[in-house]
Amino acid sequence: MKLLDFQDYAKNETERVKNALPKLKETSLRFAFISDLHYKFIDEMRVTVSNIIHAVNELNKTEKIDFLCLGGDNVGNYPTSPEDHIKMMEELRALLENSEVPVIFVQGNHDDNSIHGSIPGTNTCRIGFEVKDDIQYDTLFSIAEKCPAFHFAGNKALYGYFDAEKANTRVVFLNSSDVPYIVRDGIMKYNQQWDFGYSEKQLSWLCHTALANAPENVIFIEHMPFDHIRHNYSGENIYNEDAVDAITTAFSCAEKLHIESQHEDFGYNISVDFQGETHNIPARISAHCHIDTQTIDPAGFLSVTTMLAGRKNSGMAAGDDGVLYEREPYSAIETSMDIFTFDPEEYTLSATRYGSGKSRTFTLKKRS
């Protein structure tokens, strides 16, 4: 699918961002991140996505973008039928095929379309509307197969990692909607709209593959905020988030770890030895809450969330700066995108904002 024209206001915004970006070193990692795009079949959104891709391609010419990540809630659930939902994903994929940098997807809670099977007054969903993980992989996630530096977990799992050797850094992409598909009387026991979690398979992959022989620095990205206490929404369940925190802490501190759970659907028994070398976790980056926040999460790591890239919708609120940012279609603030720059030598991380919102610089603390 051909991109729509690069609009003048987007060209001007791209130039502004180019001038605002920190100096790029040969050892730096730089990536673009958009969250909660909620793409749908309207020209306004086609223009927005076309401008985003034009902007990333233009920045890449001089500022070298390592990858573009869509951080979940990539499509909007607006067509009710799963068939139309898949077509919407296909159109988004077709536009992103024009990106000159690798594109990596993260799964969000709106991406499986299960919300249309919701039973009124409950957080449970009937079957028949959901778009399963393997279809999401084939339609969207598989675009990352073109990138030699990206490594999928295999078997169409919606998680993997990207190695930036020049920056001595690995970026680990987790799936916070990794819940089992269990059906009882036509109702899903767990649905990806309101239930979040990590299977034993993903936890084991994290320990024994993603963090095995990892470089000095590891950045984590997923859809659900890592600061589960601050961004705890009523009715949302998060299974095994304590296991992710325990694994990340042991990895960072170079410790042995044994953890287990007897949960009937999210049970695990994991032993791993991270002894020998401590590691830095510059940040754990996520989406979902639609606003810009930064906190030190309960596990002691910097937790960063970013503003939604789609139009103002449910969940929009003021961020840490107390400002409620708006969207104006067909303008420089039609969307919101962060250009993250990580300098491993100076150990600094910044997010230069394209579109609505403000740029941010984060205070990092080494553990290694």
Structure description:
This protein has 368 residues and is of the alpha/beta class. The chain has one domain: 4-Layer Sandwich (Purple Acid Phosphatase, chain A, domain 2), CATH 3.60.21.10. It has helices spanning 8-20, 43-63, 82-96, 133-139, 200-210, 241-253, and strands at 29-34, 67-70, 103-105, 125-126, 150-152, 160-164, 169-173, 183-184, 187-188, 195-197, 217-221, 237-239, 256-261, 268-273, 284-286, 293-296, 302-305, 336-343, 348-355, 360-362. The strands form five sheets. A seven-stranded mixed β-sheet has the order 5-6-7-11-15-17-16, with no helix packed on it. The chain starts with 7 loop residues before the first helix and ends in a 6-residue tail after the last strand. 49% of the residues are buried.
Keywords for this entry:
368 residues; six-stranded mixed beta sheet; alpha/beta; seven-stranded mixed beta sheet; single chain; Purple Acid Phosphatase, chain A, domain 2; 6 helices
In short:
By secondary structure, the protein is an alpha/beta fold.
Q: What is the helix fraction of residues, given as a range? A: 10-25%
Distance between the termini: 46 Å
The unreliable regions are none
The chain-level mean pLDDT equals 95
CATH fold group:
Purple Acid Phosphatase, chain A, domain 2
- Cα gyration radius (Å): 19 Å
Mass-distribution shape: globular
Q: Order of strands across the widest beta sheet?
A: 5-6-7-11-15-17-16
N-to-C order of helices and strands:
HEHEHEEHEEEEEEHEEHEEEEEEEE
